[in-house]
Design a protein that fits this description.
With 252 residues, this protein is mainly alpha-helical. The chain folds into 2 domains: 42 residues, no CATH class; 190 residues, hpI Integrase, Chain A. It is built from 13 helices and 3 strands; from the N terminus they run ααααααβββααααααα. α5 packs antiparallel against α7 and α10 packs across α12. It is elongated. Belongs to the 'phage' integrase family.
Length: 252
Amino acid sequence: MWWSWCARLRPGGKIRQWLHQIFRYGLAKGVVDSNPATDLDVVAAPAKAPRHHPHVALSELPELLGKCDSANINKLTRYAIRLLVLTAVRPGELRAAPWAEFDLDAATWTIPKERMKARRPHAVPLPSQAVEILRQLQPITGEYSLVFAGQQNTERPMSENTINKALRLMGYENRQTGHGFRHLLSTELNGRGYNKDWIERQLAHGDSDGIRDTYNHANYLEQRRGMMQAWADSIDALCAGANSNVQLMRAC
């Protein structure tokens, strides 16, 4: 039926509303005998519950990073957690990253569309702290294709459970996940007045306005580079006991 095709284009609730209005109009005009959209809310599949990715407050981040340094976890896992904090990429994008995607001299990580959730390439500006971590990783995994090569099989990436397992061992179960670092960055940078488009592009999110997203191909790479360097510097300042609000560059 035509309405089943339409339903794939928009969220079900909006489609039901439109169909209900259409058939009500048809009833009023006498061109239909009933409104089959009335009971669609009964037969439609329930909406999926949103996934929640807990994260600590920024003020708690120095303690988390301190535990990360002292915990009995693999060095690669320790570096992976720090890179998630510094870049806000998805854990899967980091775990499966090959060295070939990184240009450390240009401080840029380019992820091809095949590895991205939105199926478009994503340029990640690397703050100097992230570049330093990657240079420290080169003697460890530089001979392999993958930055975070698996311990048992270096041709496969680190297990998808490794980062969250490490966070649980550090005492952060239900308080912090690998994905949650993205939410932490978004919360903090939005709160400091940064351009929303920069933040959303850093997170590789599509625009909620589908039409606008289709035509907005802006990368904002240099703007994001400054933003992410300020983010990394503010974390260093916070860990050193300084006031991060002073250190974190605000948007103009």
